[in-house]
Amino acid sequence: TSFATFYPHLFTKLTQGVDAWHWSRRGMQRSALAAGEKDRLPIVHPSSGSARLYPKGACVIDMMRWTYGEEQVRNVITHYLKKHAYANVETNDLYLAFQDVLGLTPWKFFEQWLYKGGEPLYEISWSESERLRSLNTDVSVEQRHETDDLTGLFDVDVAIEVHYTDRTKDSVRVRIHEQRTTVSIPNPRRKQVEFVLFDPGSYILKRLSFRRPYAELLAQFQHAPFAVDRSDALQALVADSIPASLWAALATAMTKETYASLRAEIAAVAASKGGAQAEPILRQAINDPSSEVRQAAVSAMSSIPSTLRVDVEKLLRDSSYITVATTLTKLVASFPEQRMTYLTAVGTLRGQFERVRIAVLESLIHSTTDTAALRELVDLGSPGWEFRTRQEAFAAWKRLGLCNDVTVAHLLSAVMSTNNRLAAVATSQLESWKGQTQWAAVIRTVAQSMEPTVDGWRREALHPWIK
Q1: Cβ atoms within 10 A of the Cβ of 224, count?
Q2: Binning pLDDT at 50, 70 and 90, where does residue 177 land?
Q3: How many Å from the N-terminal Cα to the C-terminal Cα in the chain?
Q4: Burial degree of 294 (CB within 10 A; 0-12, 13-18, 19+)
Q5: pLDDT at 420
Q6: Which of 184, 195, 398, 458 is the most buried (most CB within 10 A)?
Q7: Phi, psi at 183, each rounded to 5°
Q8: Cβ contacts of residue 66 below 8 Å, gap of 6+?
Q9: How many whole angstroms from its chain centre is CA 428?
Q10: Residues 269-283 pLDDT 10s
């Protein structure tokens, strides 16, 4: 299962470039770390969950390549696949493949990433020191995560880069395996340090605490080689209020940044912060060639400023159905007097998973007593539609508070589905409604009426809603 996620991630590097590859890894890491917030189960645990079997497992395979070498791990995997072709395998078979091909025992790697749980938390700081007539940049690394029988100190190889104001850098790759480690990087020419990167490109699955002054973060945002490191600096910079110098840097970055996902982050930041200084950035984002950037800009705006209205209206004809649906919803909410104009502009467009059509129906139901629109929206959540459309309809019902005999019956049919993703969404929605007295009675009554029509595990799935 981990390989099923890893290889599309690796393919990203070949098709979209290094920045997209790093960005893909960061997404997998976030999923794995989110699972780690709930518990510290190892990947090999029977109840580890999909976030560990897929994204965390893919991260571990990626770290194998970083630790032992890309070509070496490729040879290991080739041997592993040929030896066990069309056969069942277990984790230890991959372990033995390392011994067969590379003549080494990767016990520590397998132990900390597969057989034990948790992820490292590194606290980083740096300072300069003078030793033997040489200036050094001393990077302090401390492992601050909880340690016990389940999670120990991690043993990893990490790259550390010191970037200077003359746009040169010094880079070292070091082993970090103790509670506290200090890495000294010589600076014999006494260059001025601009910023320091710990694990540039984010190859290691980790949490990081690295406090730096504004000037250092701004330099990293402007000059770090990888987009993922520029993104880290951006998120740290905008945690508080944005000074004028940073607004200027954001505006410049929207023009110069080559990686669309980072431009999308800048657009989202500008939209969330708002104000006159955000508008030039948002106008540029709305007209960006990347659909990801346009979507991020309109999605992050709580309402559409009148000064951006004309620009945003263009997005009703966007190539992205999600952007069209979001734009329609935001424009109707911001300028309700123009509702029919916007609905006419969208016309009969339905979009993937009926997203645009659902946005149109929501608008009609919000502002009129259009019973035909209500019936159509309810029908889109029925078993006659594929599960993603049903999920979109469920979300609209929740926003509109459409709890009645028919919608509850459709949700309960989804609870009894063999599609776990559909069942999970329906269960969550019913649980939120069950907490309200008037709706709990509706759910109970409908579930009781459906019970005689099903048997086996489906009847068991209904029992929690009958109580």
Answers
A1: 21
A2: very high
A3: 38
A4: buried
A5: 92
A6: 195
A7: -110, 120
A8: 157, 203, 204
A9: 21
A10: 999 998 899 999 999
CB of 219 closer than 8 Å to CB of 245: no
Dist CA 356 CA 33 (whole Å): 33
Handedness of CA 11, 12, 17, 23 (dihedral sign): negative
Residues whose CB is less than 8 angstroms from the CB of residue 357 and which lie 6 or more positions away in sequence, other chains included:
349, 350, 351, 380
Q: In terms of C-beta density within 10 A (0-12 exposed, 13-18 middle, 19 or more buried), how is residue 438 classed? A: exposed
Q: Which two tokens stand for residue 283?
A: 């106008």
Q: What domains can you pick out in the chain, each with its CATH number?
A: 2-115 (1.10.390.10), 121-211 (2.60.40.1840)
In angstroms, rounded to a whole number, what is the distance separating the alpha carbons of residues 153 and 98? Answer: 23
pTM score of the predicted model: 0.91
Residue 307: exposed, middle, or buried by beta-carbon count in 10 A (0-12, 13-18, 19+)? exposed
Long-range Cβ pairs for the range 90-93 (8 Å, 24+): 91/44
Question: Which residues make Cβ contacts (< 8 Å) with residue 194, sequence separation at least 6?
Answer: 163, 164, 165, 216, 219, 223
For 157, the 3-state DSSP assignment is: strand
Q: In the predicted model, what is the mean pLDDT of residues 224-238? A: 98
> 60 with 43: CB under 8 angstroms?
yes
- The three-state secondary structure class of 125 is strand
